[in-house]
Amino acid sequence: MTSKSQIWKCNVCGNIIEILHEGADSLVCCKQPMVLQEEKIEEEGTEKHKPVIEGNKVKIGSIPHPMTEEHFIEWIEVFPAEGRSLKVFLKPGDIPEITACFTPTSARAYCNVHGLWKS
Ligand SMILES: [Fe+2]
Predict the structure, then answer these.
(1) Which of 37, 88, 92, 101 could covalently link to 116 via disulfide, CB atoms 3.0 to 4.6 Å apart?
(2) Tens of pLDDT along 38-91?
């Protein structure tokens, strides 16, 4: 079974989808199974990806993540409470942070090179 809010990617065409309603985990795109994007919680490598929550502000990450055409944070999602979320899409050149009108209890971010990260 899939579960709500999972992120799946097609490694052929690059489609990325989010589960809004649970069903069988047999998602197919370009005639191949889609790949579940695991939420990474431990930093690896030199670039930092884990969302840092400071009051209403969420930064990616402890050292600002690159925001170049080739490598950037595509979106940040913040969760004020169970069952609620706010997703903000970013583009190259943006600052990898957002300020919400609430204090998030958790956050996740998607890097176009390194995938999905959560804190
Ligand atoms: Fe990255």
Answers:
(1) 37
(2) 999 998 888 899 999 999 999 999 999 999 999 999 999 999 988 899 999 999
The rounded Å distance from CA 58 to ligand 1 centre is 16
Name the residue among 49, 46, 90 with its Cα closest to residue 68. 90
Q: How many CB atoms lie within 10 A of CB 6?
A: 19
Encoded tokens for 24: 């069988």
Delineate the domains of the chain, giving CATH numbers in brackets: 7-36 (2.20.28), 51-118 (2.60.40.730)
CA of 70 to the centre of ligand 1 (A): 10
Q: State in Å: Cα 38 to ligand 1 middle.
A: 15
Distance 97 CA to ligand 1 centre (A): 14
